[in-house]
Amino acid sequence: MGKKRQSRPRLDPGAHIAIIGSGLAGLSTALSLEQGGFTNVHIYEREGSHDARKEGYGLTLTYNPTGVLHQLNVLEEIAQSDCPSRSHYMFNANGEIQGYFGNAFARNRGWGQRGNLRVPRQRVRQILASRLKITETHWDHKLVGVSGCENGENICLAFQLEGAAEEKLLVGADLVVAADGIRSAVLQHAYPQAPPIQSLGIRLILGISSSFTHVHLKERGFYTLDSGKRLFVMPFARTAEWAVIDDNATSCSQPTGEQYMWQLSFASSDDKTYSSTELLQQALFHCRDWHEPVQELMLSTSQESIWGTLLYDRNPEILHKHLQINDTLPRRILIVGDACHAMSPFKGQGANQALQDGRVLVKHLTSARVEIAVSNTQREIVQRTASVVAASRQASVYWHEPQLVMPKDGQDTQKFAGVCSQDIPALLHALQKKNIKANSANDLDKSVQCTIDELQLIGPPEVRRKAESELKEAHFVDLARQAILSSEMNDLAFLRKLSWEYPNLIRNVDVDDMTCLQKAAKSGHIRIAHWLITEAGCLVDARLLNDLSIKSYMKALLKMYM
């Protein structure tokens, strides 16, 4: 019999793992490693603190009860910071309606399924960082060198510290995770011949409004398209939650200080750096003749929040091929996040992809020696993200085509949720003829619905995840009672999960003459009540307003949705 082959050990839980960068990819990787039992994880960041970065932008994250945010144990905390956007219209520069995304005109509206969460990037970073228990973050550490250590296995990192211009800190690491963004210093120093990032030929200008309100921006956003220009507006943050006012209050309004993010993009090859004032002037110029409230929104923007850049992406497959043939360093460097698969924002997938990378690493580290784990992880990340990067690049080209503002029958831009595709041209024509557009209607949904009714358009059949009729009666009653109890106990996480599987149950449930909304209102849970109305489609009826046990501030909220 031959000798049993000796396998090299897996990475020791106490091995030094160096993560370069404290963005989403770096923080989520650190959290995944902690959850995987690794106890010597360090984050090295060139910035001086968490707050050194600008507020940045709002992230679009997928709400998935079993997805990566759930696996990281941060899903519900992030969901609580969500600034809901229930729908958005698509306009041309004149404010004429070109399309609609949402459930206002669907026959089975209001299922309560949160497909996306919209949360400020800095808030997500803050939540991820707060969950780290033993990982140490080293601020003011600028990476200036990467080399192999003398033992031939580890990686030697050289850092320049703030205030120590002539001194360098040398750190040996058993594993290095490059999570330092699209202009990765790790790539520059470890793989100086790596393929460069690719320009998309598009400039993006972004700003965050200050205390701006408008009827078209009540928990919704909008797109405007005009000859190769694209404006996207979405809820960004609330500076205050629903106010619980005293029992004698007679009104209840949306939280004050709502913020909206606007993102203007257009074709450009100009790589000059502009000040925030210059960027705002550019944005105002490009949108000078557009419909309301575009100019007002931009003028409400704080100068500090405005920034702009040319857009780039990175082809992860081309990068991967380069890494495979470069063997000058030990194979203990993993490239994640934007350093590996930077993509345009026009598919809303950059953050979702970056958050998944760390989970893949932990999976492979616990099943193979470190070099094999790094190789397998890199390959899996590339295989998952290559098509997303390509689709995002294609979207960047598509959304900035000059002819996009004149959609033809069958084009992707002609989408109107709740209306059959063959009826969309007739509806758009009728809306234009009736002059129903951004500038002319306070309640667009109502005006559009009246037009749909006049044309006698019947929406497409809705697809349900599970028909309640398939549930055994005993199981249905049990779930219904759990829904009522969750409404009383302020358990939004369970209600979200239940609505994901049984869309109609929550809004239709009535146990012992008590609905979920009634129970939430009686218990004084504003967040639950607001979610039940706006997301789950629960209807406000007169008996709620006549119920003496429901406090006045809650009734004020209910009246807003009568």
From TrEMBL:
One of its GO terms (molecular function) is monooxygenase activity. SUPFAM superfamilies: FAD/NAD(P)-binding domain. Residues 17-367 form the FAD-binding domain. Gene3D superfamilies: FAD/NAD(P)-binding domain. The keyword Oxidoreductase applies. The keyword Flavoprotein applies. This is FAD-binding domain-containing protein. It comes from Phaeodactylum tricornutum.
